[in-house]
């Protein structure tokens, strides 16, 4: 059973697609969101949850104070589950579900930058695809934005593109969380 860990929807259960997804465990989500709250990355944030699956990461962000969340999921069944979870939690006013490939979605121009990006791609997504997604995000971020990439501990660190850098990695069993941000501009030093 997958539940929202904390916040306004804390303890509420989430539907999970019957196959093809790997929901982030409660333990990992609890650790991640504690870290994000410490970084002041949630309150009032605009959040992109790419490769949303059940929407657990983005919905956890909404429960904990994010102002706007977009769940991007290509799988039809998973996108339908995301919509069901959004409705069940009463978050339709703050959470949108977009059925699209993450690579295509992030390639579009953004009206407002993302404050927090949560990427939990299937472990078999090639590094080149992840690199493409991360590179497309660079112009859609602010210096305060945080990007989280969830990978297997057996996978290499994310291929951070020019303009971004990783600043923290934490491992929880088979799951590794990599946090990144825009690189400081050397001209500002």
Strand segment tally: 9
CATH topology: Rossmann fold
Q: Please identify the top-level CATH class.
A: Alpha Beta
Widest β-sheet, arrangement of strands: 5-4-3-6-7-9-8
Note the overall shape: globular
Q: Between the first and last Cα atoms, what is the distance in angstroms?
A: 48 Å
Helix content: 25-40%
CATH homologous superfamily placement: Vaccinia Virus protein VP39
Main sheet characteristics: 7 strands, mixed
Count of separate DSSP helical elements:
5
| Helix-and-strand structural type | alpha/beta
Radius of gyration: 15 Å
What does this structure look like?
The chain has 189 residues and is α/β, with parallel strands linked by helices. The protein has a single domain (2-188), classed as Rossmann fold (3-Layer(aba) Sandwich). It contains five helices and nine strands. It has helices at 26-38, 56-63, 76-88, 102-107, 127-137; strands spanning 2-3, 13-14, 46-50, 68-73, 95-99, 114-119, 141-152, 164-172, 175-182. The chain has a seven-stranded mixed beta sheet with strand order 5-4-3-6-7-9-8. It has a two-stranded antiparallel sheet with strand order 1-2. Its EC number is 2.1.1.171. It comes from Cellulomonas triticagri. Pfam families: Cons_hypoth95. It is an enzyme of class 2 (transferase). This is 16S rRNA (Guanine(966)-N(2))-methyltransferase RsmD.
